[in-house]
Write a structure and sequence with these properties.
Strand 1 and strand 2 form a beta hairpin. The protein contains 1 helix and 3 strands. It is extended and about 60 Å long. With 115 residues, the protein is an alpha+beta fold.
Length: 115
């Protein structure tokens, strides 16, 4: 779902490797032939000393049990903390751009206005 009013988010370029001369830019080619797209409205985060795991899911309310929520996990992403920090910075920039165009995002559902 793209909106022409929101500036595109540029992919994060991998950092130079030990064999690359300092300051040399890398070319990033993006291939989308094998890409899968999933919807997620909830996530779970877990970590080890070396890696971070993000489980993306759909938050489903049980009609039979009103106080029970089922987290139907459909995707897990494992990454290093270096990649996680780059992701955190990119997500922060994306949210800032969105809010500049559309206004603040209310996290409390009770305070959200109709869009």
């Amino acid at each position: 779902m793209s909106d022409n009013n929101v500036p595109p988010i540029q992919p994060q370029t991998p950092p130079p490797t030990a064999g690359d001369p300092a300051g040399q830019q890398m070319q990033l080619q993006i291939r989308e032939e094998k890409m899968n797209t999933v919807f997620s409205n909830i996530f779970r985060l877990s970590a080890t000393q070396e890696d971070l795991f993000l489980d993306f899911a759909i938050n489903m309310q049980h009609h039979d049990k009103p106080n029970t929520v089922v987290m139907d996990v459909n995707t897990r992403v494992a990454m290093s903390f270096f990649a996680a920090k780059r992701l955190a910075l990119a997500l922060s920039q994306a949210v800032q751009r969105y809010e500049q165009v559309y206004g603040p995002i209310q996290l409390d559902p009770r305070q959200r206005g109709a869009r």
